[in-house]
Structures are given as structure tokens and as C-alpha cells.
Specification:
33% strand; alpha+beta; six-stranded antiparallel β-sheet
Length: 306
């Protein structure tokens, strides 16, 4: 009896494990059919989480330097677009395209001519070589129609003469020697490793931003992040902070008090309520100083909420 009972328990355990594994595989594959077609049309990699399809458009063709300091693509040069379902079966499209100076206007024309909106154009860095700009885009409609509208613009990225100059050099970026556990402990949030870059991304779950009934969450661009690269003693950090208007001044003071440079203050979205202001920053130094500065800014978020 004991052997049969043990056998029965073992079979039940194996069946449970099998069912759990199948559920995980099923969940990973539950990408809406139209979103699967989107990935095929643009021929890009992406993933589907939190009801959002996010597609990456990294500028791996560029060899980027900030103030003479070589930085890899994940440090802040990974463009993207995202889609999520709104009301009436239509999708909301948002994105951030990384463009060289001579790509800006051809890409803008391709977007506008095909019915998409450009909601912002700005820098994220000072002293960047080559000079790049970030174009935020918006649209709503059926997923496949939006993709057809977007593809002509995407196809122009990386085709300019200046874009291919650093294609071989980008692969030579140094691997990370950062104490990521220490960074996570200082900041109070864990991040993800992407090659030589350690990136911490934090959503603004305390804010409710919607468009056409769709929730604009961290994967749609409503987030604060910090990307770290380099070594413990000589690191670089760059990032973006999503703020309410009433939070701007205290966050500026927190960043400057810790020696981090503010490089841009602007909006990414238009017609959003509440109004969200985005601040881009950059710094170089020991990880304690950089992570501490980011943490000081984080601590101000939510204080200005009315």
C-alpha cells in the first residue's frame, strides 16, 4: 500500500508540474493574432506583456560616444514602438524613434504622409557623437493599418550615410564590470542586464493615464529609468524621469545636488491628462554617487501628486 500510495503521489506531482509547464508555455504564446502579423510585417523582435506589444528598433548601427565616453546601444539608443488595445477594437500606438540629424525630416515626412502623428522631437544627451534625436510618435486605429502606416518610416532608419559609420565599432563596447547588486540596493529596485548595460525601469503606477480607454503603462512609455555602464569607479548613467508638473523643481534640485547633469525637460505625449513631463539626465562617476542621485530623484516622485 505504501508503495502504491507513493507512486500515486509521484504521478500526481508529475502531472501538476506538467500542467504548470504547459500553462507557462501557453501564456508565453498568447500573443494576439494581429500582433503576430505586426511582428512579421516590420521584421523586428518584440514581446507581449501587460497587454502591450512592444517592438524594439535598436540603433546597433551607431557607435555612440557621450563626451568622448563610448557607450553601447542599450545605454539609451534603443528605439521602440508599442501597441495596446483601446475602445471599439482599435489600438493605440506610441513610440520613440532614435534618429541621426539627416534622418529626422525624411522619417517625419513618412510618418505624417501616412497618417501618423509626431508628438515630440528632442535630444536626450549633450555631447553625443554622432548627434542623435528622439522622435515620439502616436496613432490609433487597427493594428495592421497602423503597422502599414509606420513601416515606411521604419524602413528609412539606418539608411543615411552617417548611420553606417560606426557599424563595426559598436560591437567593441566593454563588458560591464558593475556591482549591480549594490546599485539595486542603493536604488531600492532591481534592474535587468542587457549586455554591458544594467537598466532599472520603474513605472508610475500611482498615476492613471488613459487614451481611448487603453491604460498607458510603463511599457507604453510612462516610466522612469536609469541605465548604468562602465565600472564601479568610473561609471556612466543616463535616464529619464516621468514627472507631474508639481514634481519638476524638487527633482531638478535632487539631481543637481548629486552632481547629475540635466540635459532635457519636455513632453513625450500630447493631450494626456494629467500632463506628464519627462526629464533626461546624464552623469559620470562612482556608482555610489550615480545610483544615489537617481535614488534621491525617485524619492521625490509622488510627493507632488495632488
Amino acid at each position: 500500500m505504501r508503495r502504491s500510495e507513493r507512486l500515486k503521489e509521484t504521478l500526481i506531482l508529475l502531472a501538476t508540474i506538467s500542467m504548470a509547464a504547459s500553462a507557462q508555455v501557453s501564456a508565453a504564446q498568447e500573443v494576439p493574432g494581429d500582433y503576430q502579423q505586426v511582428l512579421k510585417i516590420v521584421a523586428k523582435q518584440g514581446d507581449y506583456k501587460a497587454n502591450v506589444l512592444k517592438v524594439n528598433i535598436p540603433r546597433n548601427d551607431l557607435h555612440m560616444k557621450i563626451a568622448g565616453y563610448s557607450v553601447p546601444t542599450p545605454f539609451g539608443f534603443g528605439g521602440w514602438f508599442a501597441m495596446t488595445k483601446g475602445e471599439g477594437g482599435e489600438d493605440v500606438l506610441m513610440g520613440d524613434l532614435v534618429l541621426t540629424q539627416d534622418e529626422v525630416n525624411p522619417v517625419m515626412s513618412a510618418l505624417l504622409d501616412h497618417g501618423l502623428e509626431v508628438t515630440a522631437l528632442h535630444n536626450h544627451f549633450f555631447w553625443d557623437e554622432p548627434r542623435v534625436f528622439f522622435m515620439h510618435i502616436h496613432g490609433h486605429g487597427k493594428a495592421l493599418e497602423l503597422t502599414d502606416q509606420l513601416k515606411p518610416a521604419i524602413d528609412l532608419i539606418g539608411q543615411s550615410k552617417s548611420a553606417g559609420a560606426g557599424q563595426t565599432a559598436s560591437a567593441s563596447a566593454k563588458q560591464s564590470a558593475l556591482d549591480t547588486d549594490k546599485i539595486a540596493k542603493i536604488v531600492g529596485h532591481a534592474g535587468e542586464q542587457n549586455g554591458p548595460v544594467y537598466k532599472i525601469t520603474i513605472g508610475r503606477d500611482d498615476l492613471e493615464v488613459k487614451e481611448m480607454g487603453a491604460t498607458i503603462n510603463a511599457r507604453m512609455g510612462l516610466n522612469t529609468w536609469a541605465a548604468f555602464a562602465g565600472s564601479n569607479d568610473d561609471a556612466a548613467v543616463a535616464g529619464d524621469i516621468a514627472m507631474l508638473e508639481s514634481e519638476v523643481q524638487t527633482i531638478l534640485k535632487a539631481l543637481r545636488a548629486h552632481g547629475l547633469d540635466v540635459v532635457a525637460i519636455h513632453h513625450h505625449m500630447i493631450n494626456s491628462r494629467p500632463m506628464i513631463i519627462f526629464l533626461h539626465y546624464w552623469g559620470r562617476g562612482p556608482i555610489d554617487q550615480l545610483a544615489g542621485g537617481f535614488k534621491a530623484a525617485l524619492d521625490e516622485l509622488g510627493k507632488g501628486k495632488k
